[in-house]
Amino acid sequence: MRHRGPEWRNTYATRAAVTDAIVLVLATAVATVCRFGFEPIRSAGHYSSTYLLISAIIAVSWWLALTLYGTREPKIVGEGVDEYRRIIRATFVTFGCVAIVSLLIKSDLSRAYLAVAFPLGLVGLLLGRKLRRKWLAKERQSGRRTSNVLVIGGTRTAKHITATIDRSGTSGYRVTGVWVPDRLESLNEWLDLPGRFVPVLGTSRTLADALVISDADTVIVSDTEHLGHDGLKSLAWELEGADIDLMVSPNVIDVAGPRIHLRAVANMPLLHLEEPRYAAASRWGKVVFDRSLATLVLLVFSPLAVAVMIGIKLTSRGPVFYRSTRVGVRGETFDMLKFRTMDVGADQRTSELLSSNDGAGPLFKMKDDPRVTSVGRLLRRYSIDELPQLINVLKGEMSMVGPRPPLPSEVEAYEGNIGKRLLVRQGITGLWQVSGRSDLTWEESVRLDLDYVENWSMARDLQIIWRTVRAVMQTKGAY
After folding, report:
1. Domain span at residue 59?
2. Which residues form the Bacterial sugar transferase domain (predicted)?
3. In the chain, which end has fewer C-beta atoms inside a 10 angstrom radius, N or C?
4. pTM of the entire predicted model
C-alpha cells in the first residue's frame, strides 16, 4: 500500500530544526560574550579559539540530542507536554555529558559559561516551540496543517470521536471517513452530524478503498471487535510502509493522563484506570493554598475593591454587594458574594426576559441584559465583580478553583451523574471559566465540571489559575 503523509509535517520539522539551531548558536555565543566579553573574541586569542570550538561542539551535540529524543516528531506536535518534556530531558543529558567529558579530560571549563549557556538555551528552545504551537494552532483553526482521519469501527463511536475532534479545533485532525469492516453500508450513508458530510463505508470497500475515498493519512480504530480476532495486528501489517499513523481509541473519555496506566496482563496490553481523585481536593494542602492565595489577592486588590464600592454607590441606588444563594459541597447552601452589577430587583425581572435567554439548560444568560448597570458592565467584562467571592474562600465555603457554583433551581433539575459536581467545593474559577465562560453550552459546562472533579490535581489548579488570568485579560465570553 503506497501512501505519503501530509507534506506539512516534514516542513514543520525542518523549520523547527532550523529554529533550534539558531537558538543554540545564540545561547552559546551569548554565554561566551558574558564570560569573556568582546575583546578576547576580536583578538582571536587562546580563550577565543578554544571557546568558539567548545561552543560549536556543544551546540551540535545539543541539536543532535534534540533529534535523538524525537522532539520534532509529528505525533507530539501541537498538544500535550511530551514535546517540552523531551526538550528538557535532551538538555539535561547534554549538560551531563559535557560535565562528564570535561571531568574525564580534566578540562577547566568555565562554570559561568555553562551557567549561562544551558539555562538560556533551554528557555529559548521552549519559547521557540511555544511560539510555533501558537502559529500551528491558528493554522489549524483555519483548516490548514491538519491530518485526515479514517475511523474504523461502529458509527456510534465514530460519531462521538468526530464531534470531540471538531470541538477541539486545534487538535490537528479531521475525520473524513468511517469504515465498518464487518457490515454492508447503506446507499449514500453519512455520519449523522450537523454540518458534516463524513461517508460511512462497509464490506463493499477494502481498506485501501476507504483510505483513498477519505484521503486519510491517519487511522483511528474505535472498536477492535469489528476487525475480528488478530484484526488489529493484520491492520498494522497492512499499513506498514504506507506512512499512515495508526491509533487505537480506548473509548475512555475525560480521564486525565495521570489516571491512565498501560499494564501487560498475560501478554495483553490493558489500560488501568485509577479511581476519581475528588477526595484529594478536600485535603489540607488545597485548603491552605486556597486561603493563602485568597488573602494575598485581597490585599493586592483592596484599593481596587474600595474604588469599585465607591463607583457602585455613586452610580446606582442599592447595596454594594449582591448575595446569591448557591449550593456548595455535599449540597450545603451558602450566600455567594459579588459586587452588585444589576439594578435592585433584577431577579424579579428574569421571567420577563426568558425569551431572550442566550444560555442553555437551566442557565439564564443574556449578552445585552438591560438590568446591568453601566459600572456593572465594566465589572463583568473583567470579572471584577467576583472579587468578593474571596471572602467565601476564606470562610471555607468556596475554593479558588472548582466547579461553577450552581443555583438551587439548577440542582433540582440535575439528572444522572451531574450531582457529582457537588463532591468538591465550588470555585471562583474552573475549567468552565477558561474554556469559554458564558459562551459554553450547558452540556459543555457540565462535562468540564465533571472532568475537574474526577481528575483533580494541584498542578491542574495552578494551570487553571494561569489560564484564568489570560482569559480575563482577553475578556472572552464575559457578559
Report:
1. 7-141
2. 286-473
3. N
4. 0.67
